[in-house]
Request: fold
Amino acid sequence: MDMNKILSGAGLKCTKQRIEVLGALEGAKKPLTAEEIHSQISGVAFSTVYRTIRRLLESGVVVKTTIPKSDGVYYELIGNEHRHYAICLKCHKMRYIDECPLRGEKPKIEDFIVTSHRLELYGYCEGCK
Reply:
């Protein structure tokens, strides 16, 4: 993935910190917390990582997922493919859902144009039920 293209397309300058945060998110198999992102980047203060994430979020490069009844906030790079997750309310494991239930269909809502969507299913994993 061309990080310079992603950043310039979002109207952002290409900085070392932004490249490193995007690199951590690009290589992740699941959304990451700010702490997990920070642990993958050396020589950058946590406050810088957090500010970088916030700016990427505001620019639409990164998406945020929260888990009800938890302090967990997770971040994921928005790529060409959107993802959906099943999230355990007890242990907070996130399981990727292989297939989009909408399968490219855009819901028709009067006086509203749908440009994208997200789906998060909450419940309990096999180990927590």
In short: The first strand starts at residue 62 and ends at 66.
